[in-house]
Amino acid sequence: MSDLGEAQYILGWSIVRDRNDRSIFIHQEKYATKVLYRFSYLNAHPVSTPTDPSTKLAEAMFPQTEAEKDSMKVIPYRETVVRKPFQYCGSDVTGSSVGVVGLGRIGTTYARMLKNGFNCKILYTGPREKPENAKSLGGELGSVEYVDMETLLRESDIVSLHQPLTEVTRGSIGAKELEFMKSSAVLINTGRGELVDQDALVEALQNKAIAAAGLDVTTPEPLPPTHPLFSLENCVVMPHIGSATVKTRQAMADIAVANHVRIKITF
Asked: Is 192 among the catalytic positions?
């Protein structure tokens, strides 16, 4: 492409040749189409990328507190783009199998978002089958299935914990359960820290027995700064702020008041 400089001028963006000198990278689809047509690349098709990462990156560029600044991890740009272009690539959520452990109010809402928003197959488990909750998710028959814990762990790409913490559920995910999971699977815990054997999780992450973990809860809370989970590149730890939005906190207060009134009326 001899007129690369002119194309860059028209776009207002940098255009970069691929290493094989047979292709170029152009940002912004609406402009890319014009440029490809202008320079007779009539058989070329622009490839769109998701906009959501841009939003997340924009948010990440402006940490609100010193703690957030300290906790940010910087991915080396040159290493990602030039040397190892697939090193930091993740897996798609769309079309994956999601295992929901505990299909209660929160678990059902989570499953509905994944099923209807990302066309995921939902597997769920718990003390008993919940056909009404499963039916409320809508969609095709067979896209929601009640299974035992082992089946859920073996077949799910994402395992998300939504159980209450009881003597029965404590340590639900231990070394044996982590071994059942796919090496490409991700464990999400937004329930309670003690649902997971944390030492076993650290070992599984270190050995790449599972791909990654996302934790909004830990044992204890907060974790000491020297805890090994913080040193793992395949683990994201949040300080129990998954529900930290104004609307959610207001809803939690409303539920608490409604429960108080209901108990008072009962007695």
From this structure: yes
| First vs last C-alpha separation in the chain | 81
Q: Which is the catalytic residue, given 105, 221, 233, 260?
A: 221
Q: Is 79 a catalytic residue?
A: no
Q: Is 227 in the active site?
A: no
Residue labelled with tokens 């099923």? 115
- DSSP-based three-state secondary structure for 134: helix
In this structure, the number of other CB atoms found within 10 A of the CB of residue 50 comes to 8
Domains (ranges, CATH) in the chain?
4-38 (no CATH), 97-237 (3.40.50.720)
Name the catalytic one among 155, 162, 177, 192.
192
Residue, of 3 and 123, whose pLDDT is higher: 123
Whether the pLDDT of residue 217 is over 60: the answer is yes
User: Which residue did the predictor score with more confidence, 8 or 66?
Assistant: 66
E-state strands within the chain: 16-17, 24-25, 97-101, 121-125, 144-146, 158-161, 186-189, 212-215, 235-237
Average pLDDT, the chain: 80
